[in-house]
From TrEMBL:
Cofactor: FMN
Similarity section: Belongs to the FMN-dependent alpha-hydroxy acid dehydrogenase family.
The protein, known as: Alpha-hydroxy acid oxidase
EC number: 1.-.-.-
GO molecular function terms attached to this record: oxidoreductase activity
Keywords: Flavoprotein, FMN, Oxidoreductase
PROSITE patterns registered for this protein in UniProt: FMN_HYDROXY_ACID_DH_1 (PS00557), FMN_HYDROXY_ACID_DH_2 (PS51349)
Sequence ranges assigned to domain FMN hydroxy acid dehydrogenase in this UniProt record: 1-384
Species of the source: Sediminicoccus rosea
InterPro entries the UniProt entry points to: Aldolase_TIM, Alpha-hydoxy_acid_DH_FMN, FMN-dep_DH, FMN_HAD, FMN_hydac_DH_AS
Highest taxon above the source species: Bacteria
Pfam families linked: FMN_dh
Amino acid sequence: RIAQRALCLDDFETMSRRHLPRPIFGYVAGATERNAALADSARAFTEYGFVPRVLRDVSQRSTKATIFNREWAAPFGIAPMGLSALAAYRGDIVLTEGAKAANIPMILSGSSLIRMEEVIAANPDTWFQAYLPGDATRVEALVDRVAAAGFGTLLLTVDTAVLPNRENNVRNGFSTPLRPSLRLALDGITHPMWSINTFLKTWRLHGMPHFENSFAERGAPILASNVLRDFTARDHLNWEHLALIRRRWPGWLIVKGVMHPEDAARAAAEGADGVIVSNHGGRQLDGTSAPLRVLPEIKAAAPNITVMLDGGIRRGTDVMKALALGADFVFVGRPMLHAAAVAGREGVDRAISLLLGELERNMALLGVNSLAELTPECLIRVGGP
Ligand code: FNR
């Protein structure tokens, strides 16, 4: 079985590099400009070392985490990733089914290619991430559609005021929609597993993929060109829009992409139930600090809401460091999509169980029984400025 060959999350990226056509691999794995934000997100974890405690009975250890009044099997979930169904056949469904089986949360991206109503049917605990145009009527219509579909948790991603400079997409010939070219055709031929199991199967069974949820007040497929126009209108978004959503949305509300303590405090004051400290996996403003570096101050500035983090989580020890520095929960992006791309549902199951296994084992080696025992005292700074 292909999935069993992966021994850690990074192995899925190595496998996916061979499996996916170059433009699609580049879209998933890449970032912006110099990839400095991406690199820093991973590096920050290496700047802390554990100080293990010994001779403590760790036989009762548990990885269970409760957020928003619900208990999950682990303190990690799957981050929202747009266009997942280009990399993996029915990507969003596969990811959310894997999350459901493991009892962890999965967040559906607003720029996914599968209708939100289908995804929530596969897993009623799926969360929804929205991109919004700066237009009040459409914001309200979107919130109503998400509520009617049955989602209980809504995220607003706020670090995307304009489209980022993804040079790698241009260099690799990635665009939405994918433009036919000789290069793309050759890429398809040299990556036959993806061409047959993802591309042709999608085309044959579901037709041409469309954005089904972007700015999704319309419940109908949206052409990529219209989505791009909506993206451009997004530079109007401001705190008033958050207040508007809070008045209309009855469920849990999370702001994703917060990096400054004052913004976290403002989100809390506007009635958000949580924030995700995130630099969008290094895919927006290049040179943004690693989320881990700003986490402690954000936790201090917003002590009464749920503080989550994503970016660069690849190991159980990364999850532990983020929790020790103040995160209540974390999310994992790219590795989950690479796993779904190379091995479908089995890949997702394997990725989740590898991460959970590492977390469980390394909690014991650190000498803790519960996530609550992960505190700053478990760590020392070992490098960096
Ligand atoms: C993303 N991310 C993202 N975030 C979001 O709020 N909406 C989206 O549609 C997307 N789309 C998306 C696509 C792909 C291919 C990737 C890799 C990422 C960002 C994502 O939710 C998350 O913040 C980062 O991926 C976390 O970093 P790691 O775990 O990938 O390092």
